[in-house]
Amino acid sequence: IVRVRPLTCTETRRGDRRVVHSLGDGAVHVSAARHDATFGFSAVFDAGASQEAVFEGSGMRQLVEMAIDGFSCTVFAFGQTGSGKTYTLMGPLTQSETQPAAPALLGLMQRSFAYLLEQSQSHGSDLALSASYLEIYNEQVRDLLSSGPPCALPLRWSKTRGFYVENQLSVDFESLEAIVSLLLQGAAPRRRRTSAHALNRHSSRSHALLTIHIRSRACQSITLPTWVSQSSACPSKQGTLCFVDLAGSERVKETGSSGELSMEANSINRSLLALGHCISLLAKPRGKWMHIPYRDSKLTRLLARSLGGSGITLMVACVSPSSHCLSETLSTLHYASRARRVTTRP
């Protein structure tokens, strides 16, 4: 899906023109000098769309239900710095445990948590829920829920589990307040890396992955004969719901970054380039697949199952309507068009 944010005050004062328009039925049109293109997606939300409309129209309810049924589901937001990725996923950046966001402004994550717990209650005690929260900063995987400063964790691979993070902390939760508290704890500025530059006062300098682990046992309440193994008669289903807030794709010279900020930007761009390369290869017909280079970055390793495995993935492409951001907007829309052609077998 695509979400087009409103023009900012800075863009309006600068006299930027609006070059991105929703045509309805999942079509978005970009009109500017020497650029006139129409793209088709599952859904397009223009600047007037509410957070609730994005949640209801994006298919998030179905993803939550499929995660409960044992599927591996992923939602990731992609777009340039300042395009509204974190707002779409989480809501206002100013929210905290002491200052919660207004209900109308809550993002896809909190709304999905609420629906998940609503479904969990209807299943009784059959579901066990836990969460892990990681960030990838300068190609280091760090645990955002661990006590003390986030420290680098090793990324391993096994035949049964694929790529996984060793020693990551997983926290059980049973209430909406508990999981929202974990989200805000991990996203706090003292935990997740953010910085200010010319394009965004609160730019994410890392990719963040919050994963909800859902374990269920279909016949937990049934009394079985002593000679029947509970595990063989009632195999547990394990689903996941992963939210990925990607750092912004950006041109370093546009941000005015230097020193450490420039190094961070280059690291971000390298990992997004690796992600784009994997998506481009996966978008080819299955018979023409070559080697998919998941090992080129930590990000693509952790998203390998989401991109080309047996999972279900929703990409939220966030774009600016401003003429000043035209090249980045076109890049994002082309990126999303390629991702839409990727098919998996869940």
UniProtKB/TrEMBL annotation:
One of its GO terms (biological process) is mitotic spindle organization. The keyword ATP-binding applies. Keywords: ATP-binding, Cytoplasm, Cytoskeleton, Microtubule, Motor protein, Nucleotide-binding. It holds the Pfam family Kinesin. GO terms for cellular component: microtubule; microtubule associated complex. GO terms for molecular function: ATP binding; microtubule binding; microtubule motor activity. InterPro entries: Kinesin-like_fam, Kinesin_motor_CS, Kinesin_motor_dom, Kinesin_motor_dom_sf, P-loop_NTPase. Residues 1-342 form the Kinesin motor domain. CDD domains: KISc (cd00106). ATP binds at residues 79-86. It is found in: Cytoplasm, Cytoskeleton. Belongs to the TRAFAC class myosin-kinesin ATPase superfamily. Kinesin family. This is Kinesin-like protein. It comes from Formicarius rufipectus. The lineage of its organism: Eukaryota, Metazoa, Chordata, Craniata, Vertebrata. The gene is Kif12.
